[in-house]
Specification:
It is built from eleven helices and eight strands. By secondary structure, the protein is of the alpha/beta class. An eight-stranded mixed beta sheet has the order 3-2-1-4-5-6-7-8, sandwiched between helices. The radius of gyration is 21 Å and the shape is elongated. It starts with 8 loop residues before the first strand and ends with a helix.
Length: about 270
């Protein structure tokens, strides 16, 4: 048995993102595993989580009055909010895509501090990027609380809710853009005569190295690009193809399309 008074946070939904967040909270010392709880209806998933996150308690219903993080699929959010409403929860952070703050607030008790975040899949390896927005009853203390949770799996930026669609277009969907680039670089490597294994190794190392250099360098990406581009050299030849294909405009269109779709989903 477990007691509500001992719990610091309950995660509604024990999927991969919920598991990643809990793992991050434990590993960074945000809270001991014994003070965390998972609400997960699937018995097989509960059995897995019990062994994967030792010490974390599990159940099928929310605990009374304990801060909650909603990590379920969008179509299940209304059911989760109904259960949290009945459990008198006072503070809620949702990472469900497309569910607006107003929709969340309307489904919870009046005065509930509600926050909404858009994390991305690199959170699964502790390298996430999250956008965070607070609702009408959110205090600075609530924002600090939510930032501390999301920081366990990466970086966080606090924005207005109206900016979360742009966040989705850049970082929420962004990993897929990079994965597509990786996929096509590997195919190009094979087309140039390299083995698939060598193409994978070179591509993964190149992307990881470039991202690390970008993060750790004081120089903007434009300068880093110029530093590796000699006039008339191999890199210049490759970049010229990007320029001919209007790569800059293509990226803008890609991000805009994802952001526009996020707006549509939020309005539905």
């Amino acid at each position: 048995m477990f007691h509500n008074v001992d719990k610091k946070l309950q995660v509604i939904g024990g999927g991969k993102m919920g598991e990643a967040l809990l793992g991050g909270l434990i590993s960074t010392g945000w809270a001991p595993s014994e003070s965390l709880h998972i609400v997960e209806p699937d018995s097989d998933r509960r059995e897995y989580l019990e062994s994967a996150l030792e010490g974390v308690s599990l159940g099928t219903d929310p605990l009374e009055g304990i801060d909650a993080l909603i990590a379920v699929k969008p179509h299940i959010v209304s059911d989760a909010c109904l259960a949290l409403h009945s459990s008198n929860v006072k503070r809620v952070l949702s990472i469900a895509a497309g569910i607006t703050l107003s929709a969340l607030e309307n489904s919870l008790n009046p005065g509930t501090a509600v926050l909404r975040a858009m994390p991305n899949t690199p959170s699964l390896v502790g390298q996430g990027a999250s956008g965070l927005a607070g609702g009408s009853a959110t205090s600075e203390n609530d924002l600090t609380w939510a930032v501390s949770i999301l920081s366990a799996v990466g970086g966080v930026v606090v924005v207005d809710e109206s900016d979360l669609d742009a966040v989705t277009g850049v970082s929420g969907s962004g990993p897929a853009y990079v994965f597509l680039l990786a996929e096509k670089m590997i195919e190009a490597a094979v087309a140039e005569g390299l083995t698939h294994e060598v193409g994978v190794e070179l591509t993964e190392r190149t992307l990881l190295g470039a991202a690390t250099l970008l993060r750790e360098s004081d120089e903007p990406p434009s300068v880093l690009r110029e530093n590796v581009t000699s006039k008339g050299g191999t890199t210049a030849a490759g970049l010229a193809v990007f320029e001919q294909a209007n790569f800059s405009n293509l990226i803008k269109e890609v991000v805009k399309a994802a952001a526009d779709r996020s707006r549509e989903l939020g309005a539905s």
